[in-house]
Amino acid sequence: MGRPEVRKTGRGRRERVSSPPQILIRDMGFDDVATVAQLEQRSYTFPWSEPIFRDCLRAGYYCCVAELDHIVMGYSIMSTGAGEAHVLNLCVAEEYRCRGIGTQLLGHLLEFAKGLGVNDIFLEVRPSNTTAIRLYQSQGFSQIGMRRGYYQAVDGREDAVVLRRKLGKGRA
């Protein structure tokens, strides 16, 4: 890290201007599963279990974590095949939300998918998760459908909004 920038204020005083922290996005490993599962438990009413995360790693899905100073702040999981990718999970710890970490994780997934020659990337999101929907729309995702009763919910089932972003040929 470089030295912090120092600037003069209007009254001749100096103040430090620090740049935003650099988030490290790296591959998730089996040693991250317990931490990721704990973050998942804190974030969702119906969370994935540790065995599900381990299965994703074993299956060869692209799994990554976002960390700062060795603290895992978020993670994402994506499957790829046949020119398509599917974002299966993207989560940022509540105390780190609204700081651009979700945008960085999603951007990382998009770049990874492009590198594999993926043409379309899909995901499902709860209609009640308006923050996530805004994030996905801001990154070029568009609604292409609904899956009725897709998610488990406290009062039964909740639909899923299906979103897609074109990455390759025929990109809109």
Task: Give a short overview.
The protein contains 4 helices and 9 strands; from the N terminus they run E-E-E-H-H-E-E-E-H-E-H-E-E. The chain is an alpha+beta fold and 172 residues long. A hairpin with a 2-residue loop joins strand 5 and strand 6.
Question: Care to describe what's here?
Answer:
This protein is an alpha+beta fold and 172 residues long. It has one domain: Aminopeptidase, CATH 3.40.630.30. It is built from four helices and nine strands. It has helices at 33-43, 50-58, 101-115, 130-138; strands at residues 5-8, 14-17, 24-27, 62-68, 71-81, 84-92, 120-125, 142-153, 156-166. Strands 3-4-5-6-7-9-8 form a seven-stranded mixed sheet, sandwiched between helices. A hairpin with a 5-residue loop joins strand 1 and strand 2. The radius of gyration is 18 Å and the shape is globular.
Key descriptive features of the protein:
172 residues; alpha+beta; Aminopeptidase; seven-stranded mixed sheet; two-stranded antiparallel sheet; 4 helices; disordered N terminus
Mean pLDDT: 89
CATH architecture: 3-Layer(aba) Sandwich
Spatial arrangement of strands, main beta sheet: 3-4-5-6-7-9-8
Number of strand elements: 9
Number of helices: 4
Secondary-structure map:
Blueprint: E1 5-8, E2 14-17, E3 24-27, H1 33-43, H2 50-58, E4 62-68, E5 71-81, E6 84-92, H3 101-115, E7 120-125, H4 130-138, E8 142-153, E9 156-166
Parallel strand pairs: 6-7
Antiparallel strand pairs: 1-2, 3-4, 4-5, 5-6, 7-9, 8-9
